[in-house]
Batch of 2 targets.
Target 1
Amino acid sequence: MSLKRLNIYNVRNIHEQTINPSPGLNFIFGNNASGKSALIEAVFLLGRAKSFRTSSIKSVINFDQQELIVSAQILLDNTQNQHLGIRLDGKNIDIRINQQASQNRSDLAYALPLQIIHPKSFELLDAGAQIRREFLDWGIFNHEESFLPVWRKYKKVLAQRNALLKEKAVSQLDVWNKEMANYGTLVDQYRSQYLEKLKPVLLNTISRFLDLSHMDISLLPGWDKSKLLEEKLIDDLEKDIRYGFTNSGPHRSDFYVTVNNRLAKDVVSRGQLKLLVICLKLAQVELISKERDKFGCILIDDFAAELDMENRAKILFYLHKIQCQVFITATEIGDFGDLSGFENYNMFHMEHGQIDQINVPCGTSL
Ligand SMILES: Nc1ncnc2c1ncn2[C@@H]1O[C@H](COP(=O)(O)OP(=O)(O)OP(=O)(O)O)[C@@H](O)[C@H]1O
Ligand SMILES: [Mg+2]
């Protein structure tokens, strides 16, 4: 699956641009503020209906315009095409899949699975647990279609239980404890099964990029598993009423990565941390590609940040081999390193929001 033709209207400083990306590697270079991240943001909007940089869509729409549009022709396999489009005006989201309107962001996410790596991605291993839960849940969402309704039910029941706790409506909690334990246990099962599948793929990916021994990844379920979740909810009742929210359950879960039994984020260098995050994200892509036989795009913004030339070369070689569509940005063309061994890539130059494809004969060393 790859974007064949991409149209961008009014995304930050990009007014109206159309490009024909390669189904493989796409390199985008240009000076600071030329619009490289805006291009990555445009593709991300198309697959996720949100920005990776801000929660305010208004700030992504070009200052002089009222709405932005991103659309693309997607090549599903050698013969089938799909048309995807999104229009955002800061209040409404208009999603079109093959000209049919859709209400659900999840339809877009299934139609165009995206993985993004950008300078703040190291937060996956260095910030609060929410971002790690989202990482796991995105992987499961792409892996098991049955997960999304269960996850939504759990969120709903949790919100209802928390509302009752705030009102101190103790008599009504019994029935919600059962519901929450039921869906919460399922969410936990999905997560632990997913992590078991991801682990060998991840360890294999890590071994390509990092010389670290005794790596491990483990799930923290969000409650003391020596008890059933329902028992824990009953035990916690007094505390939950005092705090006005539910203290135990998969909404508190987390995972951690260790090197020699120490938390990776405490012992590895910053460049290694970025590589670890890249490994986690690429392992997810590999797992989806294995089981669904298709993946959308990998987006890498500011490729050179914190990575030395040797590691950049290793990553590009890997990306070239997995045959997935990739968009990669850097300020200098030389930041991509020696591309003479690569075939069928496209090179784009950005300047003041304009994207120009550059002809680089294959096999040319840059
Ligand atoms: N809503 C907007 N409307 C118009 N221009 C905007 C808007 N938001 C940001 N910009 C401008 O768009 C330009 C491109 O920003 P972008 O972050 O895409 O640059 P970049 O090429 O990724 O730069 P860098 O190399 O520094 O990361 C900047 O000049 C920025 O100020
Ligand atoms: Mg940028």
Note: Residues 173-209 form the longest helix (37 residues).
Target 2
Amino acid sequence: MLSEREAAKYPFMSRGVELVEGLNLKLEDLADPNYRKVLDRAAERVTEAIVQGVVSARLADPLTELLSYPVAVMFVTLIGEHFLSRRFALAEAVRAYELLQGEYEDKIIQIASDEFRWDLKREPESIDGVIYSLRLAYPDYLRASTGFHEPKWKLVNRKLRDGQVSLTGVEAARLIQVEVENWIKERVSTPSNFALPGPLQKHLDHIRKVFEENRSKLGGSSLPDEVVNEAFPPCMRYCLEGLLSGRRASHMERFGLTSFLVNVGMPIDDMVQLYVSVTDFDEALTRYQIEHIAGLKGARTRYTPPTCNTLRTHGICRNQDAVCKTVTHPLSYYRKKARRLQSKQEEAEPSNTTE
Ligand code: SF4
């Protein structure tokens, strides 16, 4: 059984949920000044997710940390923005990943099997000088790693014995991150709508303000959920085609393209795979640089691509088209073009159905 501190570390777990339910708190109770710290921390969790892309772990006051999680979930569902829900789920999952990396294998096994029903066990072995301390049943492995495109995650590149895949503790933590993200996403994806007592509403208003201030910077304003390649602006096509053709890219080209791809929602693993497959870049360094630009490392700032003016100065603004004349930023181009493509598709759909 997990302690209160453990539950505060991983509040999505059943023990955390039980502890919170046991307190039998009502919305009105949370409006009491005694819960001010909980509301502050809940709002902070959501704003950290918005601004930094990762939620910090504040474990000095475990009960506040634990209680703030369901309140943060409530705030996210009340805002009801799909983009925010996804960002919050990912940011909480990254928090869990960072904490899990500091755990002994036994704790990782306990969380994986109790919460996600994984068949994971401890069986250390050394492969090429690396200690793989865990073994995971391959159906669980396949399910959790399905979104990873880096070669090292492919089953053919893994040590598989008796239907089990060998993993390091950090790899197991990374796979658990996926489960946590999906679990949270499921719970925050349905918007809710109910009145809040004054102090809670104040916090919600604050979060909404932070979200609105940041949404265009984060690319969350009506950007499509899936990456729409056809909506890439000519400058980014130029960078991408250059990369694919093996042209030596300038720093500005690489930064512009990476920050653009991060902001249109290309998964980090896909980007690493893209760079590593067409260049001789070191995979670990490439991943570090991409995660840095995505705000998951270093200063925790998610970078946006340079403006059209800056790209022009660096000779990257090429093959301008009609949409270019109406924008000053590549992400605005992408948003506009994606919207146009979507409306064209919607216009075309009714005629298809009458055939
Ligand atoms: S005008 Fe802007 S969006 Fe268009 S190609 Fe130039 S830099 Fe890219």
Note: The beta strands are 120-127, 130-137, 160-161, 164-167.
